[in-house]
Write a structure and sequence with these properties.
The chain is α/β, with parallel strands linked by helices. Helix content is 38%, strand content 15%.
Length: 354
């Protein structure tokens, strides 16, 4: 049974207009907003939002203010149905809202998407194993979630089209869409330094640290240097990616010169760290300031609310769907884009403890 997701009014309207456009019943230009609103009994705002979505998908082309949108010539061409393999980062991704939404939206666009049987973590983030698995998979296009630099470099040499969602595609000849989190993270670091913090540590996954720090992690180190804090392995520590390895890393950090502030990747690792601190009697923000570099709906239910970096996943999903439609029409699309994130200050940030 495929995952169920209730559609918004905008998505339902976009699906209806998409069906009418592809069927050829709309002519060369879409009717005006007011006419559509009256005929379909929906608000003009809903019409405008649905039209904007179809423009992003390449079905419509705007012609300026107060002019009707043009139905693009590509619609008249037959669009191939692509088998789209979504190579997830870890097994838990299969139930994540944004990943399920991506699968559903690709199905809506007329393709045959599926989650690959193995994830990058199950393949050990090993290039050889990933390559062997990919060669045996029957796909027309790949969506790679949070791929390491080495894995994306291998896919970049293959004939099957690929788009990287998150991961480290910068500078590679492949399409990509991620999040520009560095400005938000720098804001968080400046806030903590202003509160007297100097021992600030970031916990990041191995593929974000090696072979050299990724853009986000390097921006963190650079921001510390700007404020006169000499950086080293202490600020971006190595650790074995297991529960025991994570706890050993935290034990090591708090043994001699405990950090007064931490930026932790992923909500699940943030929750694990908070549990560790609770067992040690370490309380945020009294003893340590904490920031998660990803959003989670549960954060607003915490007391105090969790400080974190937030973004909207809608533009990311929309970009992947649009890219898939372009590939189906034979268009080569290797553009890379970033959605902008923001820093949300909660109650887990406070003055550095004496």
């Amino acid at each position: 049974m495929k995952p169920f997701r209730a559609l918004t009014a905008v998505e339902q309207l976009a699906a209806y207009l998409r069906e009418q456009i592809i069927a050829g019943s709309m002519g060369e230009n879409l009717p005006g907003v007011n006419r559509l609103a009256k005929e379909l009994a929906v608000s003009p705002k809903t019409i405008i939002a649905a039209v904007a979505q179809l423009e992003h998908e390449g079905l419509l082309r705007g012609q300026g203010e107060r002019r009707r949108c043009q139905i693009t010539p590509q619609v008249e061409k037959s669009k191939a149905v692509l088998r789209v393999g979504i190579l997830l980062y870890e097994p838990m991704d299969r139930v994540m809202t944004d990943k399920v939404d991506l699968l559903h939206r690709l199905e809506q666009a007329g393709h045959a998407p599926f989650f690959a049987e193995k994830t990058l973590q199950e393949l050990g983030m090993n290039v050889g194993r990933v390559a062997e698995f990919a060669r045996k998979s029957k796909v027309d296009a790949w969506v790679i979630i949070s791929g390491s630099r080495e894995i994306l470099e291998w896919f970049a040499t293959q004939p099957v089209p690929i788009i990287a969602q998150f991961g480290r595609p910068s500078g590679l000849p492949i399409a990509g869409m991620g999040v520009r989190k560095s400005p938000a993270m720098r804001e968080a670091v400046r806030k903590m330094i202003a509160l007297g913090h100097k021992r600030i540590v970031m916990i990041a996954r191995e593929e974000r640290r090696k072979p050299k720090p990724a853009l986000f992690e390097q921006a963190f180190l650079d921001e510390l240097e700007i404020h006169g804090i000499k950086t080293g392995p202490y600020h971006l520590p190595e650790w074995e990616e297991s529960v025991a390895g994570y706890h050993r890393c935290l034990d090591s950090l708090f043994k001699h010169t405990p950090p007064t502030a931490m930026i932790i990747c992923e909500p699940r690792m943030f929750i694990s760290a908070k549990d560790y601190f609770a067992q040690k009697g370490i309380i945020a923000p009294r003893d340590i300031s904490l920031v998660c570099d990803d959003p989670d709906q549960a954060f607003s239910w915490c007391d105090p609310a969790i400080s974190h970096i937030r973004w909207n996943h809608e533009p990311i999903v929309r970009r992947v769907v649009n890219w898939t439609n372009q590939v189906a029409r034979g268009v080569v699309d290797k553009r890379q884009g970033l959605a902008l994130a923001e820093f949300v200050e909660g109650g887990t940030i406070g003055p550095a403890p004496r």
